[in-house]
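hey so i finally got around to running both of the ones u sent me last week. sorry it took forever, my laptop kept dying halfway thru and i had to restart like 3 times lol. anyway pasting them below in the order u listed, first the sequence line then the structure token line for each. didnt double check formatting much so if smth looks off just lmk and ill redo it

first one:
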Amino acid sequence: MNPDYRQPIRQRFLRLVLLIALPLATACVASGASIRVGMIGLDAHAVPWTQIMHGPNVARPISEMRVVAAVPAFSADVPFSNDNIAKNIAAMRDLGVEICDTIEAMLGRVDAVMLLSIDGRPHLEQARPVFAARKPLFIDKPVAATLADIIRIFRAAESSRTPCFSNSSLRYSPGIAAMAKDAKVGRVLGCDAYSNNQSILPGHPDLYYYGIHGCEILFTIMGPGCQTVSRVKGETADIAVGTWNDGRVGSFRGILRGQTGFGALVFGEKGIAPSGPFEGYEPLLVEIAKFFRTGKPPMSAQDTIEIYAFMEAADESLRQEGRPVSISSVLEKARKQADAPGNP
């Protein structure tokens, strides 16, 4: 007989609790200590975010983070990435950041990681060593280039007991976040969210790059529970309409021509009101700092996956000439792909 089974029940229970709790405790940064941050990907938000974190007047908890090491990890076939990587590497060095040749070399120098590569295609492979090292991980949009890879990433995070989350910065802009409970609007009955969608990354669904911002606004205000998506695309706009499980309807308008911006018009039981605009990166950085400290994501993997399933269903609807596509159908397909042999 296994000796464990001869131990008193209380002793076995306490041992189990310790085995579960210990990995979680080591996967976040102790209170009071500076958070040494590593970055993977220097082609997008790395420079402006580091400038904010290292700024002389930045407040807590953002000021508790210090970027100490980074891996460039650019994508040669993405023009924006290729065109900006050299100057961004120089800028990061000027900010006191050590440039490492590999992710593994960087991981030994840091407490937590921001995966900021503009290209979602390599994100799964870039995240694997972070999960192996069990460092808290924030992934910038897009999480990955396919819904199946997004599912694989969150599965790997869960199986390795590594805290992980991803959000667009628009979710935390105060004038957007507050709309879900705005007293002037009351219970939200519908939302028309919008953002620029003029840029599309190669190898990604259409909405994953810039459309994610407007879709994140939509789900921030409407909440989860979308069931079907229909999409039409013209010369000036790209529109995806979702029907929620309680009958409410919300839409994303991707602006293709004319004045661009970020925001929403919100329809409620008491009133109709516009949301506030994008208010900078600081609100998201606050959430990331708290996450690195506690290991508790501000948003669940399930809710994040639903937003990407909405965008995937929008692509499928366009392929089907605007017919409604269920969220459940694209999730089922993606899960089968994620379960395919050779894909952990």
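and the second one:
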Amino acid sequence: MDTSTVVELGSQALWITMLVSAPLLLVALGVGLVVGIVQAATSINEATLSFIPKLVAISLTLVVVGGWQIATLVDYMRGLFLRIPTLFT
């Protein structure tokens, strides 16, 4: 296995990680921003107030995109396992 193969495998792993985690991170960012704006507008400075909306939003996002995330990870791992015999030749 040469250096370019290792770099390619690492690059693919990072891309899949980013692709799978992006929906959850973007939803958490959006909900946090909205809650922060509401807190600033109403002068409510409770640090734990954003926890429940983020938890609910991330749970709903997992329900919606969870199947796609698992399918993406399974496809990646299947491709990686099928590639193992050719990596060391």
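quick thing i noticed on the 2nd:
The chain has one domain: 3-87.
anyway thats it, ttyl
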